[in-house]
Amino acid sequence: MVTIRDVAAEAGVSVATVSRVLNNKGYVHEDTLRKVQQAIEKLNYSPNEVARSLFKRQSKLVGLLLPDITNPFFPELARGVEDELQKQDFRLLFGNSDENPEKEQAYIETFLQNQVVGIISATQTSGMFNQEQPAVPTVFLDRTHEGRYTVYADGREGGKIAARELVRRGSRNITVLKGPGHISPVQDRFLGAVEVLAASSVDFQVIQMASLTYEEAEERAKELFRQYPATDGILASNDMTAAAVLHEALRIGKAIPEEVQIIGFDDIPMSRLLFPSLSTIKQPVYEMGKQAAQLLLKLIKKEEVAEQIIQLPVSFVERNTTRKVKADG
Amino acid sequence: MVTIRDVAAEAGVSVATVSRVLNNKGYVHEDTLRKVQQAIEKLNYSPNEVARSLFKRQSKLVGLLLPDITNPFFPELARGVEDELQKQDFRLLFGNSDENPEKEQAYIETFLQNQVVGIISATQTSGMFNQEQPAVPTVFLDRTHEGRYTVYADGREGGKIAARELVRRGSRNITVLKGPGHISPVQDRFLGAVEVLAASSVDFQVIQMASLTYEEAEERAKELFRQYPATDGILASNDMTAAAVLHEALRIGKAIPEEVQIIGFDDIPMSRLLFPSLSTIKQPVYEMGKQAAQLLLKLIKKEEVAEQIIQLPVSFVERNTTRKVKADG
DNA sequence: TTGAAAGCGTTACCAC
DNA sequence: GTGGTAACGCTTTCAA
Q1: In this structure, are B233 and B264 located in the same domain?
Q2: Which residues of chain B are modeled with pLDDT < 70?
Q3: How far apart, in whole angstroms, are the C-alpha atoms of residue B40 and residue B45?
Q4: What is the spatial distance, in angstroms and rounded to an integer, between the CA atom of B25 and the C1' atom of C3?
């Protein structure tokens, strides 16, 4: 391993000088500069980040905590975060918590032990965060936490839009699939939907799910069609569950969207590839990741941040699990 | 920040002693042990990994380089890697290279600067790796590299199986969509398929794609049906392109699988949710990630490793883009 | 069984 | 403009 000492020796200067050119701060003569640069080149030197981090008590690393990268909602989030951080030469320390408090705790602890400059977390449990203010700037992503920096999409409005679209397109007996209540975005969209439905004149009922897995959604969908055969509109908690419902509906011979309309939530990549392609509420996922990273960067640099909570808009994506409607007017 | 010094002071011992209990190596009296543990508890001390890494010239970090986590093939790979490493308290430094040599170079450099103990790379370009043996144990995943530790699935055999299944199920005019030749697994499956087709009595043609994007596949699919209207069987480079072909086929009114059969490759999560659900060649993706991590762990610990290359088997997943065939016999 | 001290590779302060 | 050196928090000799 070649160190700053070797470079100094090679260039015939002190380590202090080499350090100065490395960080280009402080005076250094042009000739000296050249000598040092040549030495660096010659020895193929590259500074040891660990030593730097130790001295500065802060690394160029950011901790990213996700529930599960395998859930198709998250890869784009992660990408948004990474692309933004990468531009400023920050790197990602990455972990999946499975919403398991112990795992989460363990990851956060090692993030901190590795002296990350900041943390972005898309988890809800946040056992650690709840206890105390974390030692480094932290931004929550997709999940809201009272009094914390947060970037998320307007799930409430999304739920409303979904419900309105379903009603507007003619559903008169709607079933809402309600996801786990402790996941804030899931709860928000549910509340939004119910708010609109309650104020409308359509019949509706709610089926509670304990998870958002495809498998459970399949079960619930069976139940749904058995229990509420008159249902002609379904609001799913997310696209994955919508896919399960869609398949079950097709399996038992329902015409989609003629007999039953379905609206999902998220707009994950697969949604447009389903058949019929899935109408859904789109979250600006990449943008959310990006904005979370930007916010964190500001926090790290102690720049002024206008607001603690950034809420991004969602939008209805009309595809083929909802009926067409005449142009408004 | 509470340091080992604080703990030592609190416990009334030297830092050396605290270090000994931390790493439980060397003699330490039972009473002393207790005192130190209490001090640690009381001060809520947790050792600084950065300082450790600096001294040991080696961290508890592993670099994971992926082309793009947004490509649905990779999340499960990453998960396999992470789950395995996490058990042994290693953490992941994570980056997407987009198969861009500069990005890749930059990531690897920072991995090394952060003194990772090892690297797992699923990239093909590997500008850096090609030059010289990297400074730390490195395992290639999904992509093969001459003379390097590698974990991958048997794409060649997969290509053969796919071709055989298509022929066996009655396709007589087959189009092979060939992905970018520089990506080894993609090339392997192509070669396997062609090998079987060439030895068979069916007609076949090849369409070359410059990428594996859905968008390009859509274009090529249009071309395909225009140029080779007699095609009754399609071998796609992966499931994503298969999905595009499937949609285009449906759009122009082809009956699937009656008029045209399609087989994908990978078995990404969406494949079973397509309509008709996609027959494909399944790669044991999670397992691949896991094995790569296990291999790297062995390398790190300088344990004996039986072989440099681990090849995992693939399998045909029969779904509904291929015709049923009577039981063999 | 314990402690003093050197050293891991940097940076930043202070002299010159 | 430049260099010497303490310090970052830890581990590991080595001596006691």
Answers
A1: yes
A2: 126-134, 327-329
A3: 5
A4: 16
- Quick check: is A37 in a domain? no
> In this predicted structure, what is the pLDDT of residue B125?
75
| B123 and B174 inside one domain | no
Q: Give CA–CA dist B266/B284, Å, rounded.
A: 8
Q: Which domain holds residue B147?
A: 61-153+285-313
> Into how many domains does chain B fold?
2
pLDDT tens by residue, A187-235: 999 999 999 999 999 999 999 999 999 999 999 999 999 999 999 999 9
Chosen from B2, B74, B94, B218 to mutate, greatest number of chain A CBs within 10 A:
B94
**Burial degree of B131 (CB within 10 A; 0-12, 13-18, 19+):** exposed
Within this chain, do residues B295 and B245 fall inside the same structural domain, yes or no?
no
**Are B71 and B138 within one domain?**
yes
Measured between CA atoms, the residue of chain B closest to residue A90 is B110
Query: Phi/psi at A120 (nearest 5 deg)?
Result: -120, 125
CATH number of residue A104's parent domain: 3.40.50.2300
For D8, nearest residue by CA–C1' is A55
| DSSP codes, B128-187 | HHHHS--SS-EEEESS--TTSEEEEE-HHHHHHHHHHHHHHTT--EEEEEE--TTSHHHH
Average pLDDT, chain A: 95
How far off is chain A from B201, nearest CA to CA, in Å? 34
Asked if residue B137 belongs to a domain, the reply is yes
Q: Does some domain include residue B80?
A: yes
Contact B82 A95 (CB under 8 A): yes
**Domain co-membership, B159 together with B255:** yes
Is the whole-model pTM more than 0.70? yes
B213 and B123 in one domain? no
A 84-103 residues inside an 8 A Cβ radius of B: 86, 89, 91-96, 103
